Amino acid sequence: MSYGNKQYYVYIITNKSNKILYIGITNNLRRRMYEHKNKLAEGFSMKYDLDKLVYYEMTEDVQSAEKQLKNWHRKWKLNLISGFNPEWKDLSDFK
Fold first, then answer.
1. What domains are there in the chain, each with its CATH number?
2. Burial readout 50-60 (b: 16 or more C-beta within 10 A, e: otherwise)
3. HEC-encoded secondary structure of 39-92
4. What is the pTM of this model?
5. Span 28-81, pLDDT tens digits
6. Do residues 21 and 2 make contact, with C-beta atoms less than 8 angstroms apart?
7. H/E element holding 30?
8. How far apart are CA 95 and CA 93, in angstroms?
């Protein structure tokens, strides 16, 4: 890790039926997924029961990465997820 730069994660979560997508950012993916899974993160993800991590990437340019993904069409997001995680498994089972 370089000095002065902080690592962030841009991530996509969904519900059990993979119908609704949510893009978020965090500097601690493990903690954030714990919050989503335990319904500690109020708002959109809690309302739609989104707690299945299907995509993530590390970045130092958090605003640019998040804005880019949020502006993507749904089909592009689905293709991104399928390329990264073809079976749409929950990736939040951190070891």
1. 8-84 (3.40.1440)
2. bbbbbbbeebe
3. CCCCCHHHHCCCCEEEEEEEECCHHHHHHHHHCCCHHHHHHHHHHHCCCCCCCC
4. 0.87
5. 999 999 999 999 978 999 999 999 999 999 988 877 777 787 788 999 999 999
6. no
7. helix 29-37
8. 6
